[in-house]
Input
Amino acid sequence: MVVFAKGVGLRHQSAPPPFGLEARSTLRMTVVPVIGALVIAAGVALVFMLAVRAPEGRPDHAGGIR
Output
């Protein structure tokens, strides 16, 4: 037996429309952080590659961090 509280579970569940202003804003809110995450990941990968290729020795800016 399913028991519903007054008004709970009986209303129409709305979904955002696939086109229009709300859809464009949702797409923008998704694409902008994804692009930012890709830029950050590329920067981290670049720093990692530079650190791995740095010559061994004293860990300073000129000599690398290995």
